[in-house]
Write a structure and sequence with these properties.
Blueprint lengths: L3 E4 L13 E4 L5 E2 L12 E3 L6 E2 L12 E3 L5 E2 L12 E3 L5 E2 L20 E2 L16 E2 L12 E3 L6 E2 L12 E4 L20 E4 L4 E3 H27 L6 E4 L2 H4 L4 E4 L3
Parallel strand pairs: 1-2, 2-4, 3-5, 4-6, 5-7, 6-8, 7-9, 9-10, 10-11, 11-13, 12-14, 14-15
Antiparallel strand pairs: 15-16, 17-18
Length: 262
């Protein structure tokens, strides 16, 4: 019985008995949604560099899948490798976008190198680890319940970490992130991270976690206040001394400005 199966891009491939290794044919550049969903025998997936996308749920609950080689893939869609509980090795150096739940519940995936990742959507890596030094956006619950995660390093390209991103990462001890306006949108990002003691800013400065969270939220508050002030300044132009009423649509009922004589 042949262990290898050459995949030609069909939406619902039928693997012969004994096939445990899927090799994607050179003619295929997209693995379609649901292609191998719930397959129990695949152990290894090998893609050539021309494969650019793995569709949603393509390998959903492939419980024997252990090794994935996809050097040219740029997008992994929603739940593509959901609950591949045996998956322990992924090669994906060109991967830029990881959609919601893409590697969720891949509990054997202890580490993954993603040097090109820019967007990580919600629950993308729940219960596993990842190095995301090039990520720009980390979605809600992206690393939730990654109980083995001890450290996370982000580069200066990171712009936003959304709510609950590291919820209940019990082992997380240190994280490296840049200090930017709007980086955090809530104080629950590290909820349940009882071992997290310090935050390292890109550039080397080390802060206690509570101070870091306060600093990030202060940056957000400062930006929000500046936006409010700018909007008020646009509504209230320079006027002569005294009182002047304004249209309700601009500043609300009974709104007025007071100007002191020069």
């Amino acid at each position: 019985m042949a262990e290898e199966f050459i995949y030609m891009g069909e939406p619902n491939p039928v693997l012969p008995p004994g096939a445990i290794r899927v090799i994607v044919d050179e003619s295929v550049n997209i693995i379609p949604a649901y292609a191998f969903k719930w397959n129990r025998t695949i152990v290894e997936l090998i893609c050539h560099v021309g494969v650019k996308k793995v569709g949603g749920w393509a390998f959903d609950r492939c419980s024997s899948l252990r090794r994935v080689i996809m050097p040219g893939v740029e997008v992994v869609e929603e739940d593509a490798f959901f609950s591949c509980t045996a998956l322990s090795y992924v090669e994906c150096d060109k991967l830029e976008k990881i959609e919601e739940g893409a590697f969720c519940f891949c509990s054997s995936l202890r580490s993954i190198n993603l040097p090109s990742a820019k967007i990580v959507e919600g629950m993308a890596f729940s219960e596993c680890e990842a190095d995301l030094s090039s990520a720009k956006i980390v979605g809600e619950y992206a690393f939730a319940h990654c109980e083995a995660l001890k450290g996370a390093i982000f580069g200066d390209k990171l712009e936003t970490i959304k709510s609950w991103a590291f919820d209940n990462c019990y082992s997380l001890e240190q994280i490296t992130i840049p200090l930017k306006d709007g980086m955090f949108d809530h104080d629950n990002i590290f909820q349940g991270c009882e071992e997290l003691k310090r935050v390292v800013l890109v550039g080397g400065e080390i802060l206690q976690v509570n101070i870091a969270i306060a600093a990030f939220l202060m940056e957000k508050w400062r930006k929000d206040m500046n936006d409010v002030i700018d909007s008020i300044n646009q509504i209230l132009p320079d006027t002569p001394a005294g009182y002047e009423d304004y249209d309700d649509d601009d500043v609300g009922e009974k709104a007025f400005a007071i100007r002191e004589p020069e």
